[in-house]
Amino acid sequence: MREFKVELIPILMGKVEKEFRSKLNDELKDSPAKGKDVVYLLILSQYEGCTLKDLTELSSFDKAYTTNAIKKLGELGFVFCDKKNADSRKFSIYLTDEGKAYVKFVNEKANKIRKDIFSFLTDAEIDSMNHIAMKIGDYFWRK
Fold first, then answer.
1. Residue-wise pLDDT tens digits, 64-105
2. Separation between Cα atoms, residue 122 and residue 38, nearest integer Å
3. What is the pLDDT of residue 3?
4. CA 69 → CA 42, 82, 88, 114, distances in Å?
5. What's the predicted TM-score (pTM) here?
6. Which residues of the chain fall below pLDDT 50?
7. For labeling, which of 94, 102, 121, 122 is most exposed (least CB within 10 Å)?
8. Domain spans of the chain?
9. CATH topology for 32-141?
10. What residues have CB less than 8 Å from 53, skipping those under 6 apart?
11. What is the crossing angle of helices 63-75 and 36-46, to 10°?
């Protein structure tokens, strides 16, 4: 058995992410939301009611980009902001039905891409990788 090279994990994750984003952007090039904006939709599909601060932390994008992206996604009808009053600075963000349908569309495309990227792995290896990914996600994205 080969020695576990933990130092390779960030490098390999970066390579997988780059290939995945490139292929997904190609698939979504004629769609209303693409690129980094889709990340917010995917986060909101898992964590309903995030604030701008939550989305900024979970996405690792800067606050200005997050604010502009949520505004754009709102204009597209994919999200709505639940403000307690008109001048409230802190509010929760939710997917609309249209946003949920778009996330489903994106996930269908993304699943095909993932299957292509990881086609060299067995089902058991994919199950193991999913388990590890969920543990890493729970650690970094815990609320």
1. 999 999 999 999 999 999 877 666 678 899 999 999 999 999
2. 29
3. 74
4. 13, 16, 19, 25
5. 0.79
6. none
7. 122
8. 32-141
9. Arc Repressor Mutant, subunit A (1.10.10)
10. 63
11. 80
